[in-house]
Amino acid sequence: MLCEEFSCRPSEAFREWLRSPVGFLEDVIETRAYRQAKAMTDAADTAEAVKRLPQTPLFKLVQEIDRDLAEEERKR
Q1: pLDDT digits (tens, 9 = 90+) for 39-73
Q2: Are 34 and 42 in contact (CB under 8 A)?
């Protein structure tokens, strides 16, 4: 999975994983996944498009954070 995520050979991914702080590469992958889910959520510009978004915990988290931020902004 690391080699697919970073477009490198498995041996390179393994060496990098060994050199990196524990959890660092996993955090990078998670951040990339969140960024992609956020971009897809932002691009869903109709109610129908929002319904077609994957119903995964990550997409639900993105939507929850967006709602929380919008509510905070309304309170200002």
Answers
A1: 999 999 999 999 999 999 999 999 999 999 999 99
A2: no
Q: What is the DSSP string of 35-55?
A: HHHHHHHHH--SHHHHHTS--
- Give the distance, in angstroms, between the CA of residue 7 and the centroid of all CA atoms in the same chain: 18
What does the domain layout of the chain look like in residue ranges?
A: 2-75
How wide is the angle at C-alpha 8 spanned by C-alphas 29 and 42, nearest 5°? 35
The token duo for 43 is: 């691009």
29 and 5 Cβ atoms separated by less than 8 Å: yes
Whole-prediction pTM: 0.82
